[in-house]
Amino acid sequence: MLVQPKPKNARSKRVQTNRGPKVVENTKTAIFVRGSKTSQVIIDVLSDLYSLRKPDAINFTKKNEVHPFDDETSIEFFARKNDSSLFAVGMHSKKRPHNLILGRMFNYQILDMIELGIERCAPMKDFKAATSAVGMRPLMVFNGEAFNHSEDMVRLKSTLLDFFRGEVAEMVSLKGLEYVISVTAGPPGINGEPGLVFFRTYTTSLKKSGVRQPRVELEEMGPSIDMRIRRVRYPTDDMWKQATRIPKELKVTKVKNISRDGLGDKYGRIHMGKQDINKIQTRKVKALKKHLDADSNKRQKMDVDGLE
Predict the structure, then answer these.
(1) What DSSP string runs through 251-303?
(2) Is the pLDDT of residue 308 over 60?
């Protein structure tokens, strides 16, 4: 880990403050790094993922000696220099052909990463569909039970969500959902090896449907990637606890006797003391007055005496 340098002027101090920890963090930046040896498949994958991640992404066009699973110093140096918390490294070798590594950083140290083998890739340039605008957030769909049961697939799902989450927004317009990313988990192999993961991207078009909600049509825009998990590096318990810690300023303070249901409706509970029904102020009606009740009781008693 590099030592944090002391700022020499006001400008460098502002930059250092902007990169420091905040209650509400900045939008995550991703770096796309090419290894010392790459293939055309890896170049196409990195280029297309970079296009989907823009503008919060930095693409390295030159080759670098980077091996995150063996040596962390290079990728941590690039992350600190570019103030990035996400990285994608592409490389190619005889032992691991068409290799893609996706990872996350915490405090400019590798938090976790997952190694994927690209078995098929159809880049964006092979599709005639219109591409989405730069900076749009996708709608992500994960299909398959493996994303709920397999630890490696759960880690892959979490990493992909971080990669394409973009800027945090409380509300999203329907017209703002210009493309959809579908990730499907295939069945595992005969010997128990992880199955293929199918990564597909579609553009959306809204058509008239005759009702208030429009009819949505999907057209594949690329990239279309078939990949398989090779290696996964999990974070340590202490680092994961620090990375997922919620600041005190963002914790919602619980208010007594107020609860919400699954639809977000608020319900309040009121605690009242013991009530005396005779002292409750009610509507003043002659039939409920005490002296009328007493007179009616006297008449009933007189009638009973007369009958005797």
Answers:
(1) SPPPPTTEEE-TT--EEE--------GGGS-----GGG-HHHHHHHHHHHHHH
(2) no
